[in-house]
Design brief:
With 370 residues, the chain is mostly helical. Helices cover 56% and strands 9% of the residues. The protein has a domain of 131 residues. Helix 8 packs antiparallel against helix 9. The chain is globular.
């Protein structure tokens, strides 16, 4: 998850602009929150040996320290990410908003300095998050607000490990660290779906390698199973969203469009009860199928599961050597922007990708965020 703290810090304190601009107020609040987090940092190496810390915190600090070192050995640019620890006095760090019309899988996007246009917005101010969500709901949009326990500033600041991330088990915590470090290693401007999907691949595949090389086959298998499920869920969402695209292309009246969404929701439950859902190893197919159709939620989850099969194919192309695959992908995409990232992968994988799913549509939004 990316939050534009760098931009916030750069413009914080501009009093006149603060009063005049909603964007500046938003970024200033983000800058204030980032300042508090940075001020509370302590070296994670100290936390790992501090007898006053709970055992769970010390163990997590030791794991993160070791994972960082392993990330460097993979060729990832860890920078200062997670060399420190900050305690946050709440369970949820921030709320992330995605929104879309109910008649189109078209994300509203927000444009910020450094990272370009992104189809989500993170809020430290929970009341403002809910207010913004209601504004879109009154316009007939689907909205989705989800909690996030972490973010990356793309290496602009020394991102600390936050206490909100410690509820994860050790495999998920390791994958989170690799995921956020992956954003430091490579960020393609205006390609949020690629960036988050790339980081998912790096997160779980790095975690598998990490635990394997430490002789922990149980944890390695858990990471492998989770990456397997990410791809199955990604395929399910691809099929589901293709059906929704076909429905929305009909431009039906609101009542008929709503009825079509109900029918597709039933298709989803039936599909997950069949062979596709039965392949899941760590995710409940029934729970996944029980989720109602919500364009905003679907766009949010797709960000992390777009064309995941390409990353597996890329790794296979390089004899399943994850380190080599990671290095060569970085080299391939050095100057890429937007849709070029996935396109270049497909060109290099051809003809191996002939049977793979088509490139997802461009994530350009239907409108700018407020």
């Amino acid at each position: 998850m990316i939050l534009l703290i760098a931009a916030a810090a750069l413009i914080a304190g501009f009093g006149t602009a603060y009063v005049a601009s909603e964007d500046v107020r938003y970024l200033t609040r983000a800058g204030f929150e980032e300042t508090q987090i940075l001020t509370a940092r302590v070296p994670i190496a100290r936390v790992a040996t501090d007898p006053n810390q709970p055992d769970s915190v010390r163990e997590a600090a030791r794991l993160v320290t070791d994972v960082r070192l392993f990330a460097v050995s993979l060729g990832l640019e860890a920078k200062q990410t997670y060399t420190t620890y900050s305690r946050v006095d709440r369970d949820t760090l921030l709320l992330v908003l995605t929104t879309s019309p109910q008649t189109c899988l078209c994300p509203v996007t927000w444009k910020y300095p450094i990272v370009g246009r992104v189809p989500y917005k993170g809020f430290f101010d929970f009341a403002k998050a809910r207010e913004t969500a209601r504004e879109y709901e009154t316009k007939g949009y689907d909205v989705n607000l989800r909690p996030s326990a972490a973010f990356s500033t793309l290496g602009w600041f020394n991102d600390p490990l936050l206490s909100t991330a410690l509820s994860r088990d050790r495999v998920e915590l390791a994958a989170l660290v690799f995921h956020e470090i992956a954003h430091n290693a490579m960020w393609i401007q205006d390609a949020t779906d690629f960036n988050e999907s790339f980081a998912q691949w790096v997160g779980y595949r790095s975690a598998t390698q990490y635990f394997l090389e430490r002789g922990d086959s149980v944890a390695a298998l858990q990471a492998t199973d989770r990456w397997h499920d990410e791809q199955i869920v990604g395929e399910y969402y691809r099929l589901l969203m293709a059906k929704l695209d076909s429905l929305y292309a009909l431009k039906l009246p609101p009542a008929d469009n709503a009825a079509g969404r109900v029918q597709i929701s039933q298709w989803g439950r039936d599909t997950l009860a069949g062979p596709l859902g039965q392949q899941l190893r760590t995710i409940s197919a029934a729970r996944l199928g029980a989720r109602p159709i919500n364009n905003a939620a679907l766009l949010g989850v797709r960000l992390y599961r777009t064309n995941l099969e390409l990353f597996d194919a890329w790794e296979h192309l390089h004899q399943d050597d994850f380190r080599v695959a990671l290095y060569r992908l970085h080299t391939l995409l050095t100057d890429a922007t937007g849709a070029q990232a996935f396109q270049r992968m497909r060109v290099m994988l051809n003809p191996a990708t002939d049977m793979l799913a088509p490139i997802s549509p461009d994530t350009a939004g239907v409108s700018d965020g407020p």
